[in-house]
Specification:
Blueprint (H helix, E strand, L loop, with lengths): L1 H39 L4 H11 L1 H87 L2 H10 L2 H8 L4 H10 L2 H21 L2
Length: about 200
Amino acid sequence: MDKVLEEKEEKKQSRFQGFIFVVFIPLLFAITVALIVMTILGINVFELSKEYSQKIPFISSALDEEGTQSIEDIESKMIDLEAEIKDREAKISKLETEIVNKDEEISQVQLEKERLEEEILELTAMKDENKRAFKDIIKTYETISAKKAAPILTQMSEDEALQILSSIKADTLAAIMEKMNPEDAARYTELLTANAENQLENSP
C-alpha cells in the first residue's frame, strides 16, 4: 500500500516537473525574447499593452472608472482649495478694515491729545499771567496808603479781599485793619485766621 502511494506521489511530482520544464520555462523564455526584440525594434511594450487593454471591455471600463474618479477627486480638492482661498481673503480684508479703523482711532486720539496739550499751555500761560497781575496788585496795595486801601477792600467780595489781605506784608495788613471800621476788621480777622488754619491742615 505504501509503495502504491509513493509511486503516485512520484508520478505527480514528475508531471509537475515536466510541466515546468516543458511549458512554463519555454514560455517565460519566449516572453523574455519577445520583450527584448520589441524593445530593440523601438516598440513601447507598456503603451502597447495599455492600448490593447483599453480595447478589452472589462479592463477599459475599469481604467475609465479609475481615471474619472481621479479627476473628480482633483476637482473636489480644487473646489475646497478655492473656498479656503476665498475664506482667507475675507479674513485678510476684515483685518485690513480693522487696521484702518484702528489707525483712524489712533489719529483721533492723537489730535485730542494735541488739543489738550495746547489747552494746558494756554491755561498755564493764563495762570502765569494772573500770577504776575496778582503780584502787581499786591505791590499796589503795599504802595498806597492804608487809608485808601481799606475802603477799596471792604467794597470787594470777601474772597477777593481775603486773597489780597493774606498775601500782603504783615505791617501793611495791620495798617489797613486799623483804617477799617471795627465790624469789617473783626470779620476779616476771623476769615484770615480760618484761612491760615485751613492751610496748616492741608499742608503735608
